[in-house]
Amino acid sequence: MSASSGNLEAQPDERGLSVLAQVSNEMVRLYKEQFGRGPRRVRAHWCGADALAVVLEDTLAPAERNLVALGAHQTVRDTRLIFQYATLPEFCEPVERITGRKVRAFVSGIDAEVDGLSIESFVFYPVGEEAGQPSRIERAPRR
């Protein structure tokens, strides 16, 4: 049974990587691409049958660390969220491809005061209910 049919037990890919490991690797790649450096630690977790959360630790770029040192935590949070939602398709596409599930909602958050601990959350349509429903990617603002 695959992840797309509701089995939360990750099926390995051709390299032997589980769905959760694949999603974690994609988030590291995206962070390196989008923010210039990857997180120190990353873990992906199923949160029930229809949600996936990726916890990324130590994600701040040097410029963001400087802003935090000045006390500009909210500026770091606001800027990071703008970047993440501006690149929403880049975050959701690999998750949809790897899981075989359609992303219904994407929620991104960062705690700038705790070394940029970030959580990328993906909520899927329930299995069997996604036919005809739009992917979150389809509802993203066009660039």
TrEMBL record:
Alphabetical list of Pfam families matching this protein: MpsC
InterPro entries, A to Z: MpsC
Occurrences of domain Na+-translocating membrane potential-generating system MpsC (ranges): 20-115
Record-given protein name: Uncharacterized protein YbcI
